[in-house]
Amino acid sequence: MSQTVTEQDVRENCAALRARMAARKLTRSYDKALKPAGLKITQFTLLIAVEEGSVKSLTALADMLALERSSLVRNVKLLEDEGLIEAAPSGEGRSLGLKLTKAGRKKLTQALPLWREAQTHVETALGQNWPAVKKSLHQLIQKT
Question: How would you label 107-140 residue by residue, b for 16+ Cβ within 10 Å and e otherwise?
Answer without folding.
Answer: bbeebeebbeebeeeeeeeeeeeeeeeeeeeeee
